[in-house]
Amino acid sequence: MIRTRPKYREAKMAELAHQLSYSPANRRAEQVEAAQALILEVDAAEQYPWDFVFFRVTGFLRKQQVAAGVSGRILRLDLCTLVEILSEDLAIRVEHVREPVLSLEQVTERFKVCSKTVQRWRRRGLPTQRFIFADGRRRVGFRESTIEHFARSESARIERSSLFRQLTATEKEWIIRRGRRMAAQRSCCMKEICVRLGRRLGRSPETIRQVIRRHDAAHPEHPIFGDHSGPLNPAQRKIILDSFDRGVSVAVLAQRFCRTPSSIYRVVGQEKAQRLKDQGVEFVPNPLFDLPDADSIILEQLPAEALRAAETAPAAALAPGAGPADAMLAHPPQGIPAYLVEVFGAPMLPRPVEMDLFRRMNYLKHKAARRQAALDPAAAGSGELAEIQALLDEAHALKNRIVQANLRVVVHVARKHQHPGAELLELVSDGNLWLLRAVDRFDFARGVKFSTYASLVIMKNFARRPEEQIARRDARLLTGQDELLGQIYAHDGEGFMEQLDVAA
Q1: Which residues of the chain are under the pLDDT cut of 70?
Q2: Three-state DSSP class for 438?
Q3: Of 48, 68, 64, whose CA–CA distance to 56 is shortest?
Q4: 3-class DSSP state for residue 142?
Q5: Long-range Cβ contacts of 22-30 (<8 Å, 24+ apart)
Q6: Which residues are within 8 A (CB) of 126 and not within 5 positions of it... i.e. 6 or more apart?
Q7: Three-state secondary-structure class, residue 23
Q8: What's the angle, vertex CA 103, arms to CA 155 and CA 43, rounded to 5?
Q9: CA nearest 409: which of 425, 431, 426?
Q10: For residue 413, which of 461, 365, 381, 368 has the smallest C-alpha distance?
Q11: Which end of the chain is more exposed for a tag (fewer CB within 10 A), N or C?
Q12: Integer CA distances (angstroms), 235 to 241, 271, 481, 494, 502, in order
């Protein structure tokens, strides 16, 4: 789903959100509940220290105190953004929530306002979450407790929104006249016309739309939007797909664009296919991927062999203290914040299992890229799109397993590059980005442990990281296989990780 995410107003809240995105799903659900509870307690007129906010959301106390604070008004808005973004991937079903959850339509009906008014309330601090409703679709929902709290704190605003002045006959005639002229030019869709005319009159677009719809129903012989059978322009097609992804029904879209439901479904399918085809798929090729029986070898035979090798290996080889590299990575360094200790809870991957994860991840991407190249957006079926997306989702899940197991590498290297004035959390955030890119570009067939490769990638990028150029770090990302692997081979194999202790 392509959606423009809301932005945080405070940089520290954005940093906290980035860190929480790596938490396990059950832990992230607890953090969403904690943030939701804090929203109801925040007073817009008060000032809150960041240490308090961090403790209430994560449950941990910072060892290094932060003197800065944030106003209650900004904090509440950012907490609403945090709750909505973190809840997107949790797949929370409304029937599992301990209180009633209202849909957007139910909220508009309760307060007798249009959906645009509710969207404005969201921007002013009405908390929302992403839920899976009874029809199986994921969309915005409102908890009963947050609705009641917002109604008490913003009663005057709600009353103003529910009361509006009736349009005069002159205003309605002006809307019909201008709407007909703009529709005849075919330079914009009905939604854009309603927005423009509403801005001129100081009315909501929904009010303008209702006037036009009533006119067309009363005058079917001369409707404003009666005949729009021509092809939709790219902007209109994008609006249809974005609206469909946000939960707007096909019936509403068909009415808005004067199309049949089947044509709306066709536009949605074609646009999704085009976006999927345009989506870049990065993977490391391997000759094994082109074998006729690659599926049975990579997805069945080799995973079983990797598990047997991990289970039958000597206990000492899998123990945390097996070698210098494993010994350094097995336990959290002393003095790091408690919230970073959590990353050491993920088990370290035995070498055969790690190589199998990389092999399968890149093979699934290879299969997705091959099907993506042969995809015809104009004729693609939903089953074909679902197969490609399933391959990408499975590859992404394998990548997450690798990342979770190697977040400890980021903490170790970031700690050695910490200097006065640099926050460890900021260094870890940058290191996590480089770790993600290293996973995408690691060649599992070169015979190098990924933790060794990832450590050198992160070290190299920290060394090339002037503070004033942080914003351009992605463009300078260094993960070249030949250069980095050549440097790894130049070291004394097992002793390379020990040298990280003095590589700051």
Answers
A1: 1-5, 63-64, 66-67, 162-166, 185-189, 226-230, 258, 313-328, 330, 420-422, 465-504
A2: helix
A3: 48
A4: strand
A5: 22/343, 22/403, 22/404, 22/407, 22/432, 23/342, 25/89, 25/90, 27/342, 28/86, 28/90, 29/90, 29/92, 30/59
A6: 80, 118, 142, 146, 147, 150
A7: coil
A8: 35
A9: 431
A10: 461
A11: N
A12: 10, 11, 41, 57, 55
Q: Which residue has the tokens 């590299």?
A: 325
Backbone phi, psi, residue 219, to 5°: -130, 70
Q: How many CB atoms within 10 Å of residue 32?
A: 21
For the purposes of burial, counting CB atoms within 10 Å of the CB of 466, is it exposed (0-12), middle (13-18) or buried (19 or more)? exposed
Alpha helices (H) in 417-463, listed in sequence order:
424-441, 450-463
Angle, alpha carbons 403-405-411 (nearest 5°): 85
The answer to whether the beta carbons of residues 333 and 408 sit under 8 Å apart is no
* Phi-psi domain of 330 (left: phi exceeds 0; alpha: psi -120 through 50; beta: other): alpha
What is the end-to-end Cα distance of the chain in Å, rounded?
A: 41
Residue 168: what pLDDT?
Answer: 83
SS3 337: coil
3-class secondary structure, 15: helix
Rounded to whole angstroms, the Cα distance separating 449 from 495 reads 13
Which residue reads 């990780």 in tokens?
497
Distance of CA 166 to the CA centre of its chain: 42
- Do residues 392 and 371 lie in contact, with contact meaning Cβ atoms separated by under 8 Å? no
Q: What is the DSSP letter of 386?
A: H
Q: Do strands 138-143 and 129-132 pair parallel, antiparallel, or not at all (unpaired)?
A: antiparallel
- Would you mind telling me the total number of residues written for the chain in this entry? 504
Environment class of 74 (CB within 10 Å of its CB; exposed 0-12, middle 13-18, buried 19+): middle
Beta carbons of 31 and 17 less than 8 angstroms apart: no
* Residues 27-81 pLDDT 10s: 888 888 888 888 888 888 889 988 888 888 888 887 667 667 888 889 888 898 8
Burial class from Cβ neighbours inside 10 Å (0-12, 13-18, 19+) for residue 63 reads exposed
Q: Which residue has the tokens 């969207």?
A: 119
pTM of the model as a whole: 0.50
How far is 367 from 365, CA to CA, in rounded Å?
A: 5
Q: Tokens for 376?
A: 């015809």
